[in-house]
Amino acid sequence: xxxxxxxxxxxxxPAPRWGGWRENAGRKRSxxxxxxxxxxxxxxxxxxxHVTIRLLPDLLSLRTKKLVRALERTFAAGCDRSSFRxxxxxxxxNHAHLIVEAHDQHALGxxxxxxxxxxxxxxxxxxxxxxxxVVADRYHARMLRTPREVRNALRYVLLNARRHAAASAxxxxxxxxxxxxxxxxxxxFDGWKPAx
Length: 196
Hints:
By secondary structure, the chain is α+β, with helices and mostly antiparallel strands. The protein is about 35% helix and about 15% strand. The chain contains five helices and four strands, in the order βαββαβααα. Strands 2-3-1-4 form a four-stranded antiparallel β-sheet. It is elongated. About 20% of the residues are buried.
């Protein structure tokens, strides 16, 4: 005759209370952090994006001739993917302005990670460092929603060095004599208005 076995009940302790959202959880924000860690705006793949990347202090200027050439080569080699494309750039002392195109938010993030790592590799190689952090903070991105915004962004990015130089009265005259910035993609832009 089969013997009746009763099921024993196990008493489990309550689940631990970690994980999920908690006030003041996570890595603390650096006091000199420039970009907040908020979610970025969604966008359509038809919109170009103006991106600014800032570098850490005490690094070589991005306008150093050797570094400009190294970055030109690295941008040409790896910044044209099927879902992300670097269209124009301008290299300044401690930051760079870029105009990029991306299919979606994920493609933009991956493309900017590629640009950041290529930028770091080029800076470290030219400075003779084996490794080291180069990019200071999250990139700043602004969608260009109208043709006027695109025109203004192109003008801002491609002529940015002239604008910075003109801010100093002593260099203003010299800045206006420079036709195109050698540390930008202005040489390859074919939409300049012909001189009259």
